[in-house]
Design a protein that fits this description.
Layout lengths: L2 H11 L3 H12 L7 H25 L2 H4 L8 H4 L3 H12 L14 H8 L1 H15 L2 H6 L2 H19 L6 H14 L1 H12 L6 H8 L17 H11 L3 H21 L9 E7 L3 H13 L3 E3 L18 E2 L5 H6 L10 H17 L1 H4 L2 E10 L17 H21 L8 E6 L7 H12 L3 H15 L4 E6 L6 E5 L9 E2 L2 E3 L9 E4 L2 E16 L2 E11 L2 E6 L6 H11 L9 E7 L2 H9 L8 H4 L4 E6 L18 E2 L22 E5 L5 E7 L5 E6 L2 E2 L13
Helix pairs in contact: 2-3, 2-10, 3-8, 3-10, 7-8, 8-11, 10-11, 12-18, 15-16, 18-20
Length: 703
């Protein structure tokens, strides 16, 4: 089923309902049938959704029937100037921009002030979900516009009654909406993962005139100076450099399959995840993937509470109009999140995969382009925002685990791979062009040179029973990491010699430690994890599990702990130390120092700029039984720990479905010392410098 056929089937279902919804929304903008207290809210939200309905009709008038979505800009865009499209884009997002957020119904505090705390939470969440439909209007998805319009109208009707509805009544309407439409939402999500013909985004990449920046506004996403300036910058690059960037990205993907012994020829679909503005690089990459026999797919998940607002749920990303807004609404599903809903969602996920099981088996995994350079974000707690309660947190962990189990049945972990690469955005500062060039250099370092030096580190590390890591200056790290015993050191190793394949750039050796005997204190003075800043993050470990944690983001210790549990522990009570690694890319570290952007480097690069510790699952999660070998032929035996081994009895206890790297930069590092079985010691790093013979070149950027 092609793009037209798939979406036409949904459009036909609402062919008669859509104009009725549009007309009713128009009436609501002027009616006085609800009490004054509610009138402003419903008029505002109805007007916004009506605007999206009209916009969808204007953009896609006749396109579905005529089949002319392909090829260049639709007529709607060719009739508008770049300035007009910029003005329209800003108007769509203006309500939640920081300068207007204080008086927006998208702000939980303002919604509570105007509507009362209970109603404010429910109606504010509904407004955020309706705002998430903006891209759908641009994609021609009037099905979602219709059903959310019907939801808004149903709730509005409740407030038209003489007696004010109970909060519970409104909550139940929202609950049953998401419960009943779970099957539709999951079908669209799974189908887009396995259907190249659902190619709205790929067509933008391949068919647009990329020199005409009006193409950026086809996404419907918020377009900031970052997206515009990146597109201009790439347009000005020599074709040779664009091809080099694309080759690094696609070769990393191919090599990821090769080094793990996975057969790429069995696969047909590669999922693109990319930031808006990078289309020129992506166009070259798509051609490279096609030569490998891979067709691009792009997941069609929105930013609704159902799909996971604020959790990088969208495969095509842009600069957030307001990160505080995303943070305030990231737990909105708490409004309807219970056991029955979770089971319904899991049932819908399994049904969607079962229907597409042959295609799902052909999915190779994601190829990801990330960006860095945004100003640090420290969220402000909002007491009026939804937060998952204790029971819901456990359900959320259960949902993540079961969803991964179902996905792994149809897209087997031991058969798929990925790659990820990162580039700066203009927000990083006036030296953006220089930093971009340096990043491209870092991404293409000589992996053979690093492979040789890293093997010398591994040769020393493999002698040890454990590794002792200490910080210096303000850094109070004092960690001991236990290593797996090697039964046959001539053929076995604990550490993977990681070069530029799945994780670009080059530069780390890593292992999955034993938990028993892994203990101590991990401290970083400042770190960015998933886009959020942590100040003086401290984690204590006992037998490899986090036993205490703190940070200094907020004045309240309780708020600091809540922040860590929600965002780092992902609602788990504890997490294991799933990885210990030594980053060797001192060139990347030097880049950070030279441009004073250490705090802006993404974890993808930052993890290569010092030792790092990942909390969560091991490096080999759900593929532990697949043999992995280093270039020297030795098998990496440290693929399991005591937690992941429990999969043999109960997979629900084996995985946490998260893996977050925390790096100690070289300037906060004192020593890394290998401790032998007999108690003798050998340094790998002393006073922040590499001391293993043959690794001296790594110290040059540290001088």
């Amino acid at each position: 089923m092609g793009y037209q056929e798939f979406w036409l089937s949904y459009r036909e279902e609402v062919e008669e309902r859509f104009p009725l919804v549009e007309g009713r929304l128009k009436q609501m903008e002027a009616e006085e049938t609800v009490a004054v207290r509610w009138r402003g809210y419903f008029r505002h939200v109805a007007a916004f959704l009506h605007r999206l309905c009209v916009l969808e009709e204007e953009i896609h008038a006749g396109t579905m029937e005529k089949g002319n979505l392909r090829g260049g800009l639709p007529e709607f865009f060719t009739k508008k100037s770049l300035e007009e499209l910029q003005s329209q884009n800003r108007a769509l997002y203006e309500d939640i921009l920081p300068e207007h957020y204080g008086r927006s119904y998208g702000n939980p505090a303002y919604a509570a002030e105007q509507l009362g705390e209970g109603y404010g939470k429910l109606l504010g969440m509904l407004y955020a979900d309706i705002r998430a439909l903006i891209p759908y209007a641009f994609e021609g998805r009037n099905y979602e516009l219709t059903i959310f319009g019907e939801l808004l109208i149903e709730i509005y009707n409740c407030f038209e009654q003489e007696e004010q509805p109970e909060e519970r009544e409104i909550q139940q309407i929202i609950y049953w909406f998401y419960h009943d439409y779970s099957e539709v939402f999951m079908e669209i999500s799974v189908r887009s993962q396995t259907s190249p013909e659902l190619d709205f985004y790929t067509q933008i990449i391949m068919d647009s005139d990329l020199s005409d920046l009006r193409y950026l506004y086809r996404y419907g996403a918020y377009i900031s100076a970052n997206e515009i300036e990146v597109a201009k910058f790439l347009n000005g690059m020599e074709e040779e450099k664009i091809q080099a960037m694309a080759k690094t990205y696609t070769e990393g993907y191919r090599i990821g399959f090769a080094v793990t012994g996975k057969d790429l020829s069995k696969k047909k679909f590669v999922e693109l995840r990319y930031p808006i503005g990078f289309e020129r690089m992506l166009r070259a990459a798509v051609k490279n993937f096609q030569e490998m026999g891979l067709q691009p797919v792009v997941s069609r998940n929105g930013e609704t509470s159902f799909s996971g607002r604020g959790n990088a749920s969208s495969s095509v990303s842009g600069t957030s109009p307001n990160r505080q807004y995303g943070y305030d609404h990231k737990s909105d599903k708490a409004a309807y999140f219970d056991k029955a809903f979770v089971e319904r969602r899991l049932e819908a996920l399994r049904s969607a995969y079962e229907e597409r099981k042959e295609a799902a088996a052909l999915y190779a995994g994601p190829a990801v382009v990330e960006t860095f350079g945004e100003e640090g974000f420290v969220p402000k707690p909002c007491v009026q925002a939804y937060r998952l309660d204790g029971k819901q947190q456990k359900l959320n962990v259960y949902l993540a685990g079961q969803s991964m189990e179902i996905t792994n049945e149809y897209i087997k972990g031991e058969e798929r791979s990925f790659t990820i690469i990162s580039y700066p955005i203009p927000e990083i500062g006036a030296q953006f062009g220089e930093i971009f060039a340096r990043t491209a250099e870092v991404n293409t370092l000589d992996y053979k040179l690093y492979q040789t030096m890293q093997q010398k580190l591994i040769d020393v590390l493999d002698k040890g029973a454990s590794v002792h890591i200490t910080g210096k200056g303000r850094n109070a790290t004092d960690m001991t990491v236990a290593l797996h015993p090697l039964e046959n050191p001539a053929k076995q190793t604990n550490f993977e010699n990681c070069v530029a394949d799945v994780n670009i750039p080059v530069g780390e050796v890593f292992t999955s430690p034993l938990l028993k005997g892994t203990q101590g204190h991990l401290h970083v003075t400042q770190v960015f994890l998933d886009g959020m800043k942590y100040l003086d993050l401290e984690l204590d470990f006992k037998d490899g599990m986090i036993c205490n944690y703190s940070c200094r983001n907020f004045d309240s210790e309780q708020e600091n702990r809540k922040f860590i549990k929600e965002n780092l522990l992902k609602h788990h009570d504890t997490l294991p130390l799933g990885e210990f690694a030594i980053g060797t890319n001192t060139t990347a570290y030097r880049m950070g120092v030279d441009y004073q952007i250490q705090d802006k480097l993404p974890i993808l690069i930052a993890e290569k700029t010092g030792p790092h510790f990942a909390v969560g699952d091991t490096c080999y999660s759900r593929a532990e039984d697949t043999p992995v070998f280093n270039p020297d032929g030795k098998e990496i035996v440290a693929r399991d720990n005591e937690v992941s081994l429990s999969r043999k009895e109960d997979t629900s206890k084996a995985y946490y479905n998260c893996h977050t790297d925390i790096t100690i930069p070289y300037d906060e590092l004192d020593s890394i010392t290998v401790i032998m079985q007999d108690g003798s010691c050998e340094d790998v790093i002393r006073d922040g410098k590499f001391v293993v013979a043959g690794t001296e070149e790594l110290n040059q950027p540290l001088q």
